[in-house]
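FAQ
Q: What does a multi-component entry look like?
A: The components come first, one per line:
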Amino acid sequence: MGRFRGLAALALIIALLPLALPNNYYYDVAIRIGMNAIIVVGLNLLIGYAGQISLGHAGFVGLGAYASAVLSSRFGWPPLAAMLFGMAAVGVIAFVVARPILRLRGHYLAMATLGLGIIIYMVLVNESAWTGGNDGMSVRPFSLLGLTLASERAWYWVTGAVLLGAILLANNIVDSPVGRALRAVHGSEVAAQVAGIDTTRYKVRVFVLSAVFASAVGSMMAHYLGFVSPQVSSFFHSIELVTMVVVGGMASTYGAVLGAAILTTLPQLLATFEGYEMITFGLILMLTVIFLPRGLLPTIAARLRKAG
Amino acid sequence: MLSQTLQYLFSGLTNGAIYALSALGFSLIYNASGVINFAQGEFIMLGGVAAVLLTSAGVPLPLAILLAVLMVAVVGLLLEKFAIEPAGDADVVSLIIITIGASIFLQGVAQVVFGKGQRALAPFTGDAPIVIAGASLLPQSLWMIGTGAVIVLVLAWFFGRTRLGKAMLATAHNRLAARLVGINTRHVLALSFVISAALGAIAGVVSAPITLTSYDVGIMVGLKGFVAATLGGLGSGVGAVVGGLILGLMEALAAGYISSAYKDAVPFALIILILFFMPRGLFGARVTERV
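Then the predicted structure of the entire assembly, as C-alpha coordinates:
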Protein backbone atom coordinates (compact mmCIF):
# COMPACT_ATOMS: atom_id res chain seq x y z
CA MET A 1 0.00 0.00 0.00
CA GLY A 2 1.14 3.53 -0.60
CA ARG A 3 3.92 2.49 -2.93
CA PHE A 4 2.56 4.49 -5.82
CA ARG A 5 0.65 7.06 -3.81
CA GLY A 6 3.65 9.30 -3.34
CA LEU A 7 4.62 8.95 -6.97
CA ALA A 8 1.08 9.77 -8.12
CA ALA A 9 0.98 12.81 -5.85
CA LEU A 10 4.28 14.07 -7.23
CA ALA A 11 3.13 13.42 -10.81
CA LEU A 12 0.02 15.46 -10.07
CA ILE A 13 2.10 18.32 -8.67
CA ILE A 14 4.33 18.26 -11.75
CA ALA A 15 1.29 18.22 -14.05
CA LEU A 16 -0.50 21.07 -12.27
CA LEU A 17 2.47 23.27 -11.42
CA PRO A 18 2.58 24.99 -14.86
CA LEU A 19 -0.78 26.56 -14.00
CA ALA A 20 0.96 28.45 -11.23
CA LEU A 21 4.14 29.32 -13.12
CA PRO A 22 3.69 32.84 -14.52
CA ASN A 23 6.79 33.12 -16.71
CA ASN A 24 10.00 31.51 -17.92
CA TYR A 25 11.93 32.56 -14.83
CA TYR A 26 9.72 30.36 -12.67
CA TYR A 27 9.96 27.54 -15.19
CA ASP A 28 13.72 27.86 -14.94
CA VAL A 29 13.65 27.52 -11.14
CA ALA A 30 11.32 24.52 -11.43
CA ILE A 31 13.63 22.84 -13.95
CA ARG A 32 16.66 23.39 -11.71
CA ILE A 33 14.75 21.93 -8.77
CA GLY A 34 13.83 18.88 -10.85
CA MET A 35 17.37 18.32 -12.06
CA ASN A 36 18.86 18.66 -8.58
CA ALA A 37 16.14 16.36 -7.25
CA ILE A 38 17.21 13.61 -9.66
CA ILE A 39 20.80 13.76 -8.41
CA VAL A 40 19.69 13.91 -4.79
CA VAL A 41 17.33 10.93 -5.14
CA GLY A 42 20.35 8.93 -6.30
CA LEU A 43 22.65 10.35 -3.65
CA ASN A 44 20.08 9.63 -0.97
CA LEU A 45 20.31 5.92 -1.82
CA LEU A 46 23.99 6.12 -0.96
CA ILE A 47 23.90 8.47 2.05
CA GLY A 48 20.44 7.88 3.47
CA TYR A 49 19.99 4.18 2.91
CA ALA A 50 23.50 2.75 2.78
CA GLY A 51 24.94 5.29 5.25
CA GLN A 52 27.99 6.04 3.10
CA ILE A 53 28.95 9.68 2.68
CA SER A 54 30.19 11.14 -0.58
CA LEU A 55 31.70 14.62 -0.63
CA GLY A 56 32.62 14.36 -4.29
CA HIS A 57 29.40 13.76 -6.16
CA ALA A 58 29.57 17.05 -8.01
CA GLY A 59 32.61 15.55 -9.72
CA PHE A 60 30.34 13.02 -11.43
CA VAL A 61 27.92 15.78 -12.41
CA GLY A 62 30.86 17.60 -13.97
CA LEU A 63 32.07 14.54 -15.86
CA GLY A 64 28.60 14.00 -17.34
CA ALA A 65 28.26 17.67 -18.24
CA TYR A 66 31.63 17.80 -19.97
CA ALA A 67 31.15 14.44 -21.73
CA SER A 68 28.06 15.94 -23.33
CA ALA A 69 29.67 19.31 -23.98
CA VAL A 70 32.91 18.06 -25.49
CA LEU A 71 31.53 15.11 -27.48
CA SER A 72 28.49 16.88 -28.91
CA SER A 73 29.99 20.32 -29.50
CA ARG A 74 33.59 19.49 -30.46
CA PHE A 75 33.12 16.10 -32.10
CA GLY A 76 29.62 16.43 -33.44
CA TRP A 77 28.22 13.40 -31.62
CA PRO A 78 24.42 13.20 -31.35
CA PRO A 79 23.56 14.59 -27.86
CA LEU A 80 21.82 11.40 -26.72
CA ALA A 81 24.86 9.30 -27.67
CA ALA A 82 27.15 11.72 -25.84
CA MET A 83 24.94 11.60 -22.77
CA LEU A 84 24.80 7.79 -22.73
CA PHE A 85 28.54 7.59 -23.29
CA GLY A 86 29.06 9.97 -20.35
CA MET A 87 26.82 7.85 -18.12
CA ALA A 88 28.64 4.66 -19.14
CA ALA A 89 32.05 6.23 -18.61
CA VAL A 90 31.10 7.62 -15.20
CA GLY A 91 29.63 4.22 -14.29
CA VAL A 92 32.92 2.53 -15.16
CA ILE A 93 34.99 5.13 -13.28
CA ALA A 94 32.74 4.88 -10.24
CA PHE A 95 32.89 1.08 -10.38
CA VAL A 96 36.70 1.04 -10.56
CA VAL A 97 37.20 3.43 -7.62
CA ALA A 98 34.26 2.13 -5.58
CA ARG A 99 35.85 -0.99 -4.16
CA PRO A 100 38.93 0.58 -2.63
CA ILE A 101 37.03 3.73 -1.63
CA LEU A 102 34.04 2.06 -0.01
CA ARG A 103 36.31 -0.21 2.01
CA LEU A 104 37.05 2.97 3.96
CA ARG A 105 34.77 4.07 6.76
CA GLY A 106 33.57 7.36 8.15
CA HIS A 107 36.13 10.13 7.88
CA TYR A 108 38.44 8.22 5.60
CA LEU A 109 35.58 7.68 3.16
CA ALA A 110 34.72 11.39 3.34
CA MET A 111 38.36 12.24 2.63
CA ALA A 112 38.66 9.89 -0.35
CA THR A 113 35.44 10.98 -2.05
CA LEU A 114 36.31 14.62 -1.41
CA GLY A 115 39.73 14.06 -2.99
CA LEU A 116 38.19 12.38 -6.00
CA GLY A 117 35.82 15.30 -6.56
CA ILE A 118 38.60 17.88 -6.25
CA ILE A 119 40.83 16.00 -8.68
CA ILE A 120 38.02 15.88 -11.26
CA TYR A 121 37.45 19.62 -10.74
CA MET A 122 41.12 20.37 -11.31
CA VAL A 123 41.28 18.26 -14.46
CA LEU A 124 38.29 20.18 -15.84
CA VAL A 125 39.95 23.52 -14.99
CA ASN A 126 43.41 22.63 -16.29
CA GLU A 127 42.68 20.73 -19.51
CA SER A 128 41.52 23.94 -21.09
CA ALA A 129 42.26 22.83 -24.67
CA TRP A 130 39.28 20.49 -24.30
CA THR A 131 37.17 22.11 -21.63
CA GLY A 132 37.78 25.83 -22.06
CA GLY A 133 39.27 25.99 -18.56
CA ASN A 134 37.79 28.34 -16.00
CA ASP A 135 35.82 30.20 -18.66
CA GLY A 136 33.83 27.09 -19.48
CA MET A 137 32.45 26.29 -22.92
CA SER A 138 29.17 26.56 -24.75
CA VAL A 139 27.09 23.49 -25.53
CA ARG A 140 24.73 23.04 -28.42
CA PRO A 141 21.08 22.35 -27.61
CA PHE A 142 19.74 18.84 -27.12
CA SER A 143 18.21 17.37 -30.25
CA LEU A 144 16.87 13.96 -31.10
CA LEU A 145 15.48 12.72 -34.43
CA GLY A 146 15.38 16.22 -35.81
CA LEU A 147 13.52 17.64 -32.80
CA THR A 148 15.34 20.22 -30.71
CA LEU A 149 14.65 20.80 -27.04
CA ALA A 150 14.82 24.53 -26.76
CA SER A 151 12.02 26.10 -24.75
CA GLU A 152 11.77 26.14 -20.96
CA ARG A 153 8.40 24.45 -21.26
CA ALA A 154 9.81 21.49 -23.19
CA TRP A 155 12.64 21.07 -20.68
CA TYR A 156 10.14 21.25 -17.84
CA TRP A 157 8.24 18.21 -19.08
CA VAL A 158 11.37 16.24 -19.90
CA THR A 159 12.88 16.95 -16.47
CA GLY A 160 9.60 16.05 -14.75
CA ALA A 161 9.40 12.75 -16.62
CA VAL A 162 13.01 11.84 -15.87
CA LEU A 163 12.49 12.72 -12.20
CA LEU A 164 9.46 10.42 -11.95
CA GLY A 165 11.44 7.66 -13.67
CA ALA A 166 14.35 8.13 -11.27
CA ILE A 167 12.05 7.97 -8.25
CA LEU A 168 10.32 4.85 -9.56
CA LEU A 169 13.71 3.21 -9.97
CA ALA A 170 14.91 4.33 -6.53
CA ASN A 171 11.71 3.13 -4.84
CA ASN A 172 12.02 -0.24 -6.53
CA ILE A 173 15.55 -0.59 -5.24
CA VAL A 174 14.60 0.46 -1.72
CA ASP A 175 11.77 -2.10 -1.58
CA SER A 176 13.86 -4.90 -3.07
CA PRO A 177 16.21 -7.26 -1.22
CA VAL A 178 18.99 -4.87 -2.25
CA GLY A 179 17.29 -2.11 -0.28
CA ARG A 180 16.96 -4.28 2.80
CA ALA A 181 20.61 -5.23 2.50
CA LEU A 182 21.55 -1.55 2.26
CA ARG A 183 19.61 -0.68 5.38
CA ALA A 184 21.32 -3.56 7.16
CA VAL A 185 24.67 -2.10 6.11
CA HIS A 186 23.60 1.27 7.50
CA GLY A 187 22.54 -0.30 10.80
CA SER A 188 25.70 -2.28 11.37
CA GLU A 189 28.01 -3.34 8.62
CA VAL A 190 29.58 -6.16 10.60
CA ALA A 191 26.19 -7.55 11.61
CA ALA A 192 25.11 -7.43 7.97
CA GLN A 193 28.21 -9.34 6.99
CA VAL A 194 27.58 -11.92 9.66
CA ALA A 195 24.06 -12.34 8.27
CA GLY A 196 25.65 -13.28 4.97
CA ILE A 197 25.30 -10.02 3.07
CA ASP A 198 28.13 -9.20 0.68
CA THR A 199 28.14 -5.62 1.99
CA THR A 200 30.81 -4.31 -0.37
CA ARG A 201 28.94 -5.51 -3.44
CA TYR A 202 25.78 -3.66 -2.43
CA LYS A 203 27.64 -0.51 -1.50
CA VAL A 204 29.47 -0.56 -4.85
CA ARG A 205 26.21 -0.99 -6.75
CA VAL A 206 24.47 1.91 -5.13
CA PHE A 207 27.59 4.10 -5.44
CA VAL A 208 27.74 3.41 -9.18
CA LEU A 209 24.01 4.00 -9.58
CA SER A 210 24.12 7.35 -7.78
CA ALA A 211 27.13 8.40 -9.87
CA VAL A 212 25.30 7.54 -13.09
CA PHE A 213 22.26 9.58 -11.94
CA ALA A 214 24.59 12.52 -11.32
CA SER A 215 26.22 12.14 -14.72
CA ALA A 216 22.87 12.03 -16.54
CA VAL A 217 21.78 15.25 -14.84
CA GLY A 218 25.14 16.82 -15.67
CA SER A 219 24.45 16.13 -19.35
CA MET A 220 20.92 17.51 -19.10
CA MET A 221 22.12 20.67 -17.35
CA ALA A 222 24.82 21.24 -19.98
CA HIS A 223 22.32 21.09 -22.84
CA TYR A 224 19.64 23.01 -20.98
CA LEU A 225 21.90 25.90 -19.97
CA GLY A 226 23.84 25.73 -23.24
CA PHE A 227 26.98 26.29 -21.20
CA VAL A 228 29.22 24.45 -18.75
CA SER A 229 31.93 25.65 -16.39
CA PRO A 230 34.06 23.70 -13.92
CA GLN A 231 31.94 25.15 -11.10
CA VAL A 232 29.43 22.28 -11.62
CA SER A 233 32.00 19.95 -10.09
CA SER A 234 33.23 22.25 -7.31
CA PHE A 235 33.52 21.13 -3.69
CA PHE A 236 30.81 23.62 -2.76
CA HIS A 237 28.39 22.00 -5.22
CA SER A 238 29.11 18.58 -3.67
CA ILE A 239 28.28 20.08 -0.28
CA GLU A 240 25.05 21.57 -1.64
CA LEU A 241 23.99 18.13 -2.88
CA VAL A 242 24.72 16.50 0.48
CA THR A 243 22.84 19.33 2.19
CA MET A 244 19.76 18.65 0.08
CA VAL A 245 19.79 15.02 1.23
CA VAL A 246 20.24 15.96 4.87
CA VAL A 247 17.72 18.79 5.02
CA GLY A 248 15.03 16.91 3.12
CA GLY A 249 15.41 13.75 5.09
CA MET A 250 17.88 10.91 5.05
CA ALA A 251 16.43 7.67 3.74
CA SER A 252 13.35 9.39 2.38
CA THR A 253 13.06 9.67 -1.39
CA TYR A 254 10.39 12.38 -1.31
CA GLY A 255 12.33 14.11 1.42
CA ALA A 256 15.21 14.30 -1.03
CA VAL A 257 12.91 16.01 -3.54
CA LEU A 258 11.79 18.44 -0.84
CA GLY A 259 15.40 19.15 0.11
CA ALA A 260 16.26 19.87 -3.52
CA ALA A 261 13.26 22.19 -3.80
CA ILE A 262 14.15 24.19 -0.68
CA LEU A 263 17.85 24.53 -1.29
CA THR A 264 17.46 25.36 -4.98
CA THR A 265 14.90 28.09 -4.29
CA LEU A 266 16.71 29.58 -1.32
CA PRO A 267 19.75 30.99 -3.19
CA GLN A 268 17.33 32.62 -5.67
CA LEU A 269 15.64 34.40 -2.78
CA LEU A 270 18.89 35.37 -1.11
CA ALA A 271 20.85 36.25 -4.26
CA THR A 272 20.52 39.98 -3.61
CA PHE A 273 22.30 39.83 -0.26
CA GLU A 274 25.89 38.98 -1.02
CA GLY A 275 27.51 36.92 1.72
CA TYR A 276 24.25 36.47 3.61
CA GLU A 277 23.52 33.60 1.24
CA MET A 278 26.42 31.65 2.73
CA ILE A 279 25.49 32.62 6.28
CA THR A 280 21.93 31.36 5.82
CA PHE A 281 23.08 28.24 4.03
CA GLY A 282 25.52 27.34 6.79
CA LEU A 283 22.96 28.04 9.51
CA ILE A 284 20.31 25.88 7.85
CA LEU A 285 22.79 23.05 7.55
CA MET A 286 23.81 23.21 11.21
CA LEU A 287 20.33 23.76 12.63
CA THR A 288 18.76 20.94 10.60
CA VAL A 289 21.30 18.37 11.71
CA ILE A 290 21.15 19.50 15.34
CA PHE A 291 17.39 19.90 15.73
CA LEU A 292 15.93 17.68 12.99
CA PRO A 293 18.55 14.95 12.70
CA ARG A 294 16.23 12.85 10.56
CA GLY A 295 15.50 15.65 8.15
CA LEU A 296 12.42 17.68 7.35
CA LEU A 297 10.03 15.22 5.72
CA PRO A 298 10.53 12.24 8.05
CA THR A 299 10.15 14.56 11.07
CA ILE A 300 6.92 16.06 9.71
CA ALA A 301 5.60 12.60 8.84
CA ALA A 302 6.33 11.35 12.36
CA ARG A 303 4.57 14.37 13.89
CA LEU A 304 1.50 13.82 11.72
CA ARG A 305 1.37 10.15 12.59
CA LYS A 306 1.56 10.99 16.30
CA ALA A 307 -1.15 13.64 15.97
CA GLY A 308 -3.45 11.42 13.87
CA MET B 1 70.16 22.74 -10.24
CA LEU B 2 70.98 22.33 -6.57
CA SER B 3 69.86 25.85 -5.80
CA GLN B 4 66.57 25.16 -7.56
CA THR B 5 65.92 22.02 -5.53
CA LEU B 6 66.82 23.97 -2.41
CA GLN B 7 64.33 26.62 -3.45
CA TYR B 8 61.58 23.98 -3.72
CA LEU B 9 62.56 22.58 -0.33
CA PHE B 10 62.23 26.03 1.25
CA SER B 11 58.80 26.64 -0.19
CA GLY B 12 57.77 23.08 0.70
CA LEU B 13 58.81 23.50 4.34
CA THR B 14 57.13 26.90 4.56
CA ASN B 15 53.78 25.55 3.36
CA GLY B 16 54.37 22.28 5.17
CA ALA B 17 54.60 24.15 8.49
CA ILE B 18 51.13 25.59 7.92
CA TYR B 19 49.71 22.22 6.86
CA ALA B 20 51.26 20.67 9.97
CA LEU B 21 49.59 23.25 12.24
CA SER B 22 46.29 22.70 10.48
CA ALA B 23 46.69 18.93 10.77
CA LEU B 24 47.49 19.23 14.49
CA GLY B 25 44.23 21.10 14.93
CA PHE B 26 42.33 18.29 13.20
CA SER B 27 44.04 15.64 15.31
CA LEU B 28 43.44 17.44 18.62
CA ILE B 29 39.71 17.73 18.05
CA TYR B 30 39.49 14.25 16.59
CA ASN B 31 41.16 12.81 19.69
CA ALA B 32 38.92 14.64 22.12
CA SER B 33 35.63 14.06 20.35
CA GLY B 34 35.93 11.80 17.31
CA VAL B 35 34.83 14.76 15.19
CA ILE B 36 36.60 15.82 12.00
CA ASN B 37 36.24 19.56 12.15
CA PHE B 38 35.82 20.77 8.57
CA ALA B 39 35.83 24.33 9.92
CA GLN B 40 39.52 24.04 10.87
CA GLY B 41 40.50 25.92 7.72
CA GLU B 42 38.17 28.77 8.70
CA PHE B 43 40.14 29.26 11.94
CA ILE B 44 43.18 29.86 9.75
CA MET B 45 41.22 32.24 7.53
CA LEU B 46 39.73 34.10 10.52
CA GLY B 47 43.17 34.52 12.12
CA GLY B 48 44.57 36.18 9.00
CA VAL B 49 41.47 38.26 8.32
CA ALA B 50 41.17 39.49 11.93
CA ALA B 51 44.84 40.48 12.04
CA VAL B 52 44.52 42.42 8.76
CA LEU B 53 41.40 44.22 9.96
CA LEU B 54 42.95 45.11 13.32
CA THR B 55 46.24 46.40 11.89
CA SER B 56 44.45 48.47 9.27
CA ALA B 57 42.39 49.96 12.14
CA GLY B 58 45.68 51.15 13.62
CA VAL B 59 46.30 48.46 16.24
CA PRO B 60 50.04 47.70 16.51
CA LEU B 61 51.02 44.34 14.98
CA PRO B 62 51.92 42.35 18.13
CA LEU B 63 48.71 43.40 19.87
CA ALA B 64 46.70 42.70 16.69
CA ILE B 65 48.13 39.19 16.53
CA LEU B 66 47.32 38.54 20.16
CA LEU B 67 43.77 39.84 19.78
CA ALA B 68 43.22 37.88 16.55
CA VAL B 69 44.30 34.63 18.19
CA LEU B 70 42.11 35.31 21.23
CA MET B 71 39.08 36.14 19.07
CA VAL B 72 39.43 32.98 17.02
CA ALA B 73 39.87 30.90 20.18
CA VAL B 74 36.53 32.29 21.37
CA VAL B 75 34.99 31.34 18.01
CA GLY B 76 36.31 27.81 18.55
CA LEU B 77 34.72 27.68 21.99
CA LEU B 78 31.38 28.97 20.66
CA LEU B 79 31.46 26.42 17.85
CA GLU B 80 31.89 23.63 20.36
CA LYS B 81 29.22 24.95 22.76
CA PHE B 82 26.55 25.79 20.19
CA ALA B 83 27.08 23.30 17.37
CA ILE B 84 28.97 20.24 18.53
CA GLU B 85 27.67 19.78 22.07
CA PRO B 86 23.94 20.09 21.26
CA ALA B 87 24.31 17.39 18.60
CA GLY B 88 25.09 14.89 21.36
CA ASP B 89 26.28 11.56 20.04
CA ALA B 90 25.13 11.99 16.45
CA ASP B 91 26.73 9.72 13.85
CA VAL B 92 29.84 10.59 11.87
CA VAL B 93 27.98 11.80 8.79
CA SER B 94 25.88 14.25 10.85
CA LEU B 95 28.91 15.63 12.68
CA ILE B 96 30.79 16.12 9.41
CA ILE B 97 27.81 18.03 8.06
CA ILE B 98 27.52 20.26 11.15
CA THR B 99 31.14 21.34 10.86
CA ILE B 100 30.75 21.91 7.11
CA GLY B 101 27.75 24.11 7.93
CA ALA B 102 29.87 26.01 10.45
CA SER B 103 32.58 26.44 7.85
CA ILE B 104 30.18 27.92 5.28
CA PHE B 105 28.64 30.13 7.97
CA LEU B 106 32.02 31.52 9.04
CA GLN B 107 32.98 32.17 5.41
CA GLY B 108 29.73 34.04 4.94
CA VAL B 109 30.37 36.19 8.01
CA ALA B 110 33.92 36.92 6.85
CA GLN B 111 32.64 37.84 3.39
CA VAL B 112 30.17 40.32 4.87
CA VAL B 113 32.70 41.91 7.25
CA PHE B 114 35.84 41.70 5.10
CA GLY B 115 34.48 41.88 1.57
CA LYS B 116 35.45 39.69 -1.35
CA GLY B 117 38.93 41.08 -2.04
CA GLN B 118 42.34 39.76 -1.09
CA ARG B 119 44.54 41.63 1.37
CA ALA B 120 47.99 41.04 2.79
CA LEU B 121 49.38 41.57 6.25
CA ALA B 122 52.73 43.45 6.47
CA PRO B 123 55.68 41.05 6.89
CA PHE B 124 56.81 40.88 10.53
CA THR B 125 60.47 41.70 9.83
CA GLY B 126 60.81 43.21 6.37
CA ASP B 127 60.79 41.51 3.01
CA ALA B 128 64.46 41.48 1.97
CA PRO B 129 65.09 37.85 0.93
CA ILE B 130 67.93 35.91 2.54
CA VAL B 131 70.03 34.08 -0.06
CA ILE B 132 71.33 30.64 0.92
CA ALA B 133 73.35 28.66 -1.67
CA GLY B 134 71.60 30.44 -4.51
CA ALA B 135 68.10 29.90 -3.16
CA SER B 136 66.25 32.79 -1.62
CA LEU B 137 64.15 32.65 1.51
CA LEU B 138 61.80 35.33 2.74
CA PRO B 139 62.17 36.34 6.40
CA GLN B 140 58.45 35.60 6.77
CA SER B 141 59.10 31.98 5.75
CA LEU B 142 61.47 31.71 8.70
CA TRP B 143 58.74 33.09 10.92
CA MET B 144 56.35 30.43 9.59
CA ILE B 145 58.77 27.53 10.01
CA GLY B 146 60.00 28.83 13.38
CA THR B 147 56.50 29.37 14.74
CA GLY B 148 55.54 25.86 13.65
CA ALA B 149 58.57 24.39 15.42
CA VAL B 150 57.93 26.37 18.64
CA ILE B 151 54.29 25.30 18.71
CA VAL B 152 55.19 21.65 18.25
CA LEU B 153 57.62 21.91 21.19
CA VAL B 154 55.04 23.67 23.37
CA LEU B 155 52.44 21.02 22.56
CA ALA B 156 54.92 18.22 23.27
CA TRP B 157 55.61 19.80 26.67
CA PHE B 158 51.89 20.34 27.30
CA PHE B 159 50.89 16.75 26.56
CA GLY B 160 53.97 15.17 28.12
CA ARG B 161 54.44 17.22 31.28
CA THR B 162 51.22 18.88 32.41
CA ARG B 163 48.26 17.40 34.21
CA LEU B 164 45.79 18.97 31.83
CA GLY B 165 47.64 17.66 28.77
CA LYS B 166 47.69 14.18 30.23
CA ALA B 167 44.00 14.44 31.01
CA MET B 168 43.38 15.24 27.35
CA LEU B 169 45.45 12.25 26.23
CA ALA B 170 43.59 10.01 28.65
CA THR B 171 40.27 11.21 27.26
CA ALA B 172 41.46 10.45 23.74
CA HIS B 173 42.36 6.91 24.73
CA ASN B 174 39.19 6.05 26.56
CA ARG B 175 36.58 8.62 27.44
CA LEU B 176 34.68 6.49 29.93
CA ALA B 177 37.81 5.45 31.81
CA ALA B 178 38.97 9.07 31.87
CA ARG B 179 35.67 10.11 33.39
CA LEU B 180 35.97 7.36 36.00
CA VAL B 181 39.29 8.70 37.25
CA GLY B 182 37.72 12.14 37.66
CA ILE B 183 38.57 13.95 34.43
CA ASN B 184 35.92 16.40 33.27
CA THR B 185 35.73 15.23 29.68
CA ARG B 186 33.38 18.04 28.68
CA HIS B 187 36.01 20.59 29.62
CA VAL B 188 38.55 18.59 27.66
CA LEU B 189 36.30 18.72 24.61
CA ALA B 190 35.87 22.49 24.88
CA LEU B 191 39.57 22.96 25.50
CA SER B 192 40.48 20.95 22.40
CA PHE B 193 38.37 23.29 20.26
CA VAL B 194 39.95 26.35 21.88
CA ILE B 195 43.50 25.08 21.34
CA SER B 196 42.77 24.00 17.75
CA ALA B 197 41.20 27.35 16.95
CA ALA B 198 44.19 29.18 18.45
CA LEU B 199 46.60 26.97 16.47
CA GLY B 200 44.67 27.73 13.29
CA ALA B 201 44.63 31.46 14.02
CA ILE B 202 48.40 31.50 14.63
CA ALA B 203 48.94 29.65 11.35
CA GLY B 204 46.67 32.14 9.60
CA VAL B 205 48.44 35.17 11.05
CA VAL B 206 52.01 34.07 10.25
CA SER B 207 51.10 32.98 6.72
CA ALA B 208 48.96 36.02 5.84
CA PRO B 209 51.94 38.18 4.70
CA ILE B 210 52.94 35.57 2.10
CA THR B 211 49.78 33.81 0.99
CA LEU B 212 47.49 36.86 1.28
CA THR B 213 44.15 36.42 2.95
CA SER B 214 40.51 36.57 1.90
CA TYR B 215 37.26 35.06 3.08
CA ASP B 216 37.79 31.89 1.02
CA VAL B 217 41.44 30.97 1.75
CA GLY B 218 40.42 28.57 4.52
CA ILE B 219 38.92 25.81 2.37
CA MET B 220 42.09 24.68 0.62
CA VAL B 221 44.40 25.02 3.64
CA GLY B 222 41.84 23.24 5.77
CA LEU B 223 41.33 20.38 3.33
CA LYS B 224 45.09 19.98 2.94
CA GLY B 225 45.45 19.94 6.71
CA PHE B 226 42.88 17.14 6.77
CA VAL B 227 44.90 15.33 4.09
CA ALA B 228 48.05 15.78 6.20
CA ALA B 229 46.31 14.49 9.32
CA THR B 230 44.94 11.50 7.42
CA LEU B 231 48.33 10.89 5.84
CA GLY B 232 49.95 10.69 9.26
CA GLY B 233 47.06 8.73 10.72
CA LEU B 234 44.13 10.55 12.32
CA GLY B 235 44.75 11.38 15.93
CA SER B 236 48.52 10.99 15.88
CA GLY B 237 50.36 14.19 16.83
CA VAL B 238 53.68 13.08 15.35
CA GLY B 239 51.77 11.87 12.30
CA ALA B 240 50.17 15.28 11.84
CA VAL B 241 53.51 17.10 11.85
CA VAL B 242 55.25 14.56 9.62
CA GLY B 243 52.21 14.41 7.32
CA GLY B 244 52.11 18.20 7.01
CA LEU B 245 55.80 18.47 6.14
CA ILE B 246 55.66 15.56 3.66
CA LEU B 247 52.65 17.14 2.01
CA GLY B 248 54.31 20.55 1.71
CA LEU B 249 57.48 19.06 0.24
CA MET B 250 55.66 16.76 -2.21
CA GLU B 251 53.55 19.64 -3.37
CA ALA B 252 56.52 21.96 -3.91
CA LEU B 253 58.54 19.29 -5.73
CA ALA B 254 55.58 18.31 -7.92
CA ALA B 255 54.94 21.97 -8.75
CA GLY B 256 58.61 22.42 -9.67
CA TYR B 257 59.29 19.23 -11.59
CA ILE B 258 55.95 17.94 -12.85
CA SER B 259 53.24 20.54 -13.31
CA SER B 260 52.45 23.70 -11.41
CA ALA B 261 48.87 23.64 -12.70
CA TYR B 262 48.21 20.38 -10.87
CA LYS B 263 50.03 21.44 -7.69
CA ASP B 264 46.81 21.57 -5.67
CA ALA B 265 45.73 18.14 -6.92
CA VAL B 266 48.89 16.47 -5.55
CA PRO B 267 47.73 16.15 -1.91
CA PHE B 268 44.42 14.62 -2.95
CA ALA B 269 45.91 12.14 -5.42
CA LEU B 270 48.46 11.21 -2.77
CA ILE B 271 45.89 10.64 -0.04
CA ILE B 272 43.67 8.50 -2.27
CA LEU B 273 46.61 6.26 -3.17
CA ILE B 274 47.71 5.99 0.46
CA LEU B 275 44.21 5.19 1.67
CA PHE B 276 43.90 2.47 -0.97
CA PHE B 277 46.97 0.72 0.36
CA MET B 278 47.07 1.84 4.01
CA PRO B 279 43.46 2.55 5.02
CA ARG B 280 44.58 4.06 8.34
CA GLY B 281 47.37 6.33 7.15
CA LEU B 282 51.05 6.10 7.99
CA PHE B 283 50.88 6.18 11.80
CA GLY B 284 47.21 5.43 12.48
CA ALA B 285 46.27 2.94 15.15
CA ARG B 286 44.46 -0.25 14.25
CA VAL B 287 40.98 -0.10 15.67
CA THR B 288 38.49 -2.90 15.74
CA GLU B 289 34.84 -2.01 15.57
CA ARG B 290 32.71 -3.34 18.37
CA VAL B 291 29.35 -4.69 17.32
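Q: Is there any commentary attached?
A: Sometimes. For this entry: The domain at 2-277 of chain B is CATH 1.10.3470 (ABC transporter involved in vitamin B12 uptake, BtuC).
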